[in-house]
Design brief:
Blueprint lengths: L26 H14 L4 E4 L2 H8 L16 E5 L3 E5 L4 H7 L5 E4 L4 H11 L4 E4 L6 H10 L4 E4 L1 H8 L4 H22 L8 H14 L4 E2 L4 E4 L19 E7 L1 E3 L2 E2 L2 E7 L4 H20 L6 H14 L12 E2 L6 E4 L12 E4 L2 E4 L3 E4 L2 E6 L2 E4 L11
Parallel strand pairs: 1-5, 3-4, 5-6
Antiparallel strand pairs: 1-2, 2-3, 7-10, 8-9, 9-12, 10-11, 13-14, 15-18, 16-17, 18-19
Helix pairs in contact: 4-5, 7-8, 9-10
Length: about 400
């Protein structure tokens, strides 16, 4: 660690290697919950093609970004008594090794609208559930045209509800990914110096995760220097690290399909008193929000706790995103705290990430992943929230 780092950025002792849990596959129970909901909605069948939902229910896995090129491969067709995984030749052998628990792998060759129309006819499906949020209009329209006797119904909210409470093995996998994120920060501190570019630091993060046996990054790392940190989701570029500036790092990795997400805003040398004050406001807002988390309170009320402090500090217009989002097989999933009026439940996992963004000055964000437990929130990230000066 270079001279000048105020103290160890990890608050709790770290194991030498992250826990690599074996993810259980209670898919029979997951399917039972899906079928119960199908019965309540009077659906004869559902079609599921979102990669995260397909993996959750069947075990079939597509790499990040592969969903756009896989076509319909990985699509699930589920009725009250049968479950099929539809794949083309490219994924046939892969599916055979990944999918068990009563799933039948079906090789497809004809256009998928025809394949599905035949399945609907064979099974007498009159009411079909679909993922409207991830199914492009052209495919929805093609299916409606090829199966005019079948009613199509969106079931996105019902599928999100299936995954909103994490099983213990899922929490363990997210925690392992968070632990790798903590270790990545320690690794990166030795490589931050004036002159190194945002893009080079982002590449170092990606390299660290691959070298340490993660499946890869959870998303493209955000690495932003100085005033560029005022872009909440800016992309790293050729801007070099400079003394007297902030360095915003937002990154995560994937372990056994489950993801982490952490943001820290570092000080490179001495920064202005204004920037230090902004960091303290954000840190306190996050602390209060995490303390407000417990079973039975709404996600929206947790969001309001952090937002109130930022607004009282005079920065209402400088904080325009939600305080937190669910995380699991996807980086952003339910619950989204800002709009989640329902009670939080034990096993929900989400980020807490308030921020303040002053255009032309700096952006400050601090983000941790927490799990809701009986007595409140437990942080799955261990990196300290106080300012680290390099």
């Amino acid at each position: 660690m270079p001279a000048g780092v105020s103290r160890n950025p990890i608050e709790t002792p770290m194991r030498t290697a992250p826990v690599r849990p074996t993810i259980g596959t209670p898919r029979a129970e997951r399917l039972a919950r899906l079928r119960k909901r199908m019965a309540e909605l009077e659906l004869d069948a559902v079609i599921i093609s979102r990669p995260a939902n397909s993996r959750y229910l069947s075990g079939f896995r597509l790499a990040r970004g592969e969903g756009e090129t896989a076509g319909y491969s990985g699509t699930l067709f589920v009725t009250a008594f049968e479950q099929l995984l539809l794949v083309d030749f490219r994924y046939l052998e892969q599916a055979a090794t990944q999918v068990t628990d009563g799933w039948r792998v079906v090789r497809t060759a004809a256009p998928m609208a025809i394949v599905i129309a035949n399945l609907l006819a064979d099974h007498g499906v009159l009411r079909l559930g679909l993922e409207a949020e991830s199914l492009v209009h052209a495919r929805w329209a093609a299916l409606a045209e090829s199966a005019p006797g079948t009613e199509l119904h969106a079931i996105d909210a019902e599928l999100a509800e299936l995954r909103i409470v994490k099983e213990p093995a899922e929490v363990a996998a997210i925690e392992a990914a968070c632990q790798l994120g903590d270790q990545a920060l320690v690794y990166l501190l030795d490589r931050i110096r004036p002159g190194v570019t945002e893009r080079a630091l982002a590449a170092e993060l990606e390299r660290f995760f691959i070298d340490n046996h993660a499946e890869g990054t959870a998303f493209d790392p955000i690495v932003l220097v100085g005033p560029r940190a005022a872009m909440p989701h800016g992309a790293p570029g050729s801007t070099p690290v400079e003394a007297g500036s902030v360095l915003l790092l937002d990154y995560g990795c994937q372990v056994d399909g489950y993801r982490s997400d952490m943001t820290r805003t570092l000080f490179v040398g001495e920064v202005s008193e204004q920037v230090r004050r902004l960091h303290e406001i954000v840190r306190e807002a996050q602390r209060r929000a995490i303390e407000a988390v417990r079973p039975g309170v709404s996600g929206a009320s947790v969001d309001a706790v952090a937002r109130q402090l930022i607004e009282e500090s005079g920065h209402a217009e400088h904080f325009g995103h939600g305080v937190g989002h669910g995380i699991g097989l996807e980086t952003h999933e339910a619950p989204r705290l800002l709009t989640f009026e329902a009670p939080l439940r034990e096993g929900m996992v989400f980020s807490v990430e308030p921020g303040i963004y002053l255009a032309g000055v700096a952006g400050i964000r601090i983000e941790d992943i927490v799990v809701v437990e009986a007595h409140g929130a437990r942080r799955l990230t261990a990196s300290r929230r106080e300012a680290v000066t390099i």
